[in-house]
Design a protein that fits this description.
mainly alpha, 188 residues, Four Helix Bundle (Hemerythrin (Met), subunit A), 77% helix
Length: 188
Amino acid sequence: MIGTLIFAILALIAIASAVGMLTSTNAVRAALFLVVNFMCVALFYLGLNAPFLAMVQVTVYAGAIMVLFLFVIMLLGAERVPLESKLRWQAPVTIVLAVLLVATAAFVLFSPRIGVDLSVPPLLSQTAGAMESYGSPQAVGEVLFTRYMLPFQMVGVLLLVAMIGAVVLTRDELEKKRGRLDKQETQK
């Protein structure tokens, strides 16, 4: 009973922070709403007995990624989003996509062939030992560095290439801006 109540409260906070993030015109406030949402997701992981994923959620996403977002927002000076920049076609497209999402979820849940089986497996007591180690740092490390080693390395290379590309593109833009500023100063 208490677990269901805590889940309901966390779900409401997660939904409210997601709505706050989407509707905020201040980019810093939107990023802080996203931090609250990440914390709720980390608490969901704790409720699912996955402490490693919860700590990764807090340290990587709520910590490092959000610090990077806030740094970029402050560096670019893009704290406020002007209201006239909102596109008018976004609201109808959002409504259509939401209806499609609800229809797809209803189809999956209520279809007799695809329906979700919510019954408890009969041999759950025999797998209790395996469930205790599920999601532990040791179990995640074993799977990550044995079975998923190649995809893990490929993601690392992909992120490295993306980071180098972002630095190169930003450097070119900064050099163009500096060149324009230098020309304006010499003309004065």
